[in-house]
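Hi everyone, sorry if this is the wrong subforum. Our group has a chain we'd like a structural model of before ordering constructs, and none of us has done structure prediction before. Sequence below.
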Amino acid sequence: MTSDERDSLDGLGSIAQKLNEMLDALPGPVKNAAKKEIRELVSLVGDRRRPRVMVIGRRGAGKSSLINALCGAPMRPVGAVSPQTGEATWETLGFGNRQIEILDTRGAQEASKPVETDAADSAFDSIRLALSKKCPDVILFLAKAKEVGAAVDADLGFLDEIHRLVVSMGDVDEVKIVPVVTQCDELDPSDLDFSDPDKMKHVQEACAVLDRHLRSRPYVQPHLASSALPTSAKMFFHDEQINPRRDYRWNIDKLSEIIMDVIPNETRLEYVRVAQFQKIQTKLARKIVTVHAGICGAVGSTPIPLADLPIITGFQLSMVMAIAYISGREISRKTASEFLVAMGVNVGVGAIFRESARALAKLIPAAGNVVSGFVAATGTKAVGEAAILYFINQSSGGDVKRQLQAKLKEII
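Answer:
Right subforum, don't worry. Here is the predicted structure as C-alpha cells:
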C-alpha cells in the first residue's frame, strides 16, 4: 500500500470525528443511527487489518493447496510424499498489494517429521507456541473426501483441543470453525465434472459422514460456521498466475463467502482484496455503499444550509476509494477524485441535490430537510453502484457514466 493510499483511507477517522460532533445537534434517534453507521465505517476502513486464518487437518488433507486456491496464487509449496509444513508460525503471505496471515499447521496424527524444520515434538505443541503470539479470526478444519470416515474422531479430538486452546489464549468472544471436505475431485468418477449425478452422490455422502461426526462433538458443534462444505482446490499456474484454462476450483468462492461472514469487521476489507472473488467483493462493497448512504442521508437532514456539501462530497470520495481498494487496485485520493469528475459527480452535483430537495420541499412543506436527506442518501447510493460497476465488474467508463447520469436524473 502506498503512503498516499494509506493516508487517504486512514484520514477517514478525522472526518468521522468532525461529523460526529456536527451530528450532536440532531434529534436523538437520527443522531444515534448516523453515529452507528460512522462507527461501522471506521471499523471497516479506518481500523482495518490483515485477516488471520488457521488451517487444521491431517497430513495430505490439502491444507497448503486450499490456501493457494483461496488466494489464487502459489503461496505455499505442496508436499507430494512427506509432510511438508513444519513449524506452525504465523506467516504473512502477499502477492501484488494484497496480504493475509496464515497459520498453516502440521498435519494431525503425523507419523513422521515434516520436511520443513520444527523444533516442537508434536503438532499440538507447535500450534500452542504460535497461538501464544496471535489469535486466529477463523479456523478451517479440513478432511479429505476419501478419508472422512477414517479415524476422524481422533482428528476432531485434536480440533476440540486446539479450539479450547484458542479461546483460553486469545482475547476474543468467538472464533468460528469452518469444516471443509477437500479433494472432492478424487471421488468416483474421478473427473472434474461436478454436474455428474453419480459424483455428486458420493460428494454428498462424504459431507454427510463428516457432518454426523461433527454433530457428535458437543463442544465443537456450537462453534461451527456451517455444515461440511465440499471443495476442490485443483488448479494450475503459469508464471505464478492461475491458468484460466486449467482453473478447476470448485466451491472455493462459497468457502470464501463463509469466511468473510464470520471474520471480524475490521478484517473484511483486506480479506476480499486477497480472495479476489467478485461475488464477495460486491457483497462487501454494497455494505460500504449502504453505510455511506446512511451517513450522507443524515448529513443531508441537518438544518445547516450548504454545510453538508463538503462532507457529502468527502464521504462519496472515501466510498469510491474503499470500493476501488476492495477490487485490489492501487488508488489515491486524486485517482478517486478523477473518477468522480469523469462520472460527472462533483460539488456541483451536490448543489443540485440540495436545490432539488428545496424545490421538492416547497411542494411538501412539512418534509423540509427529510427530503434533503433522502436525496443525499439516494444520490450517494447511485454513485456507489457506479463505482462497483467500474472497479469490480470492470464495466467501461462510458457505460457506467451513462447509467449513473440516468439514475441521477431520476433522483433530482
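For your construct planning: The chain has two domains: 3-47+278-411, 52-262. The beta strands are 52-57, 91-95, 98-104, 138-144, 176-182, 229-230, 235-238, 241-247.
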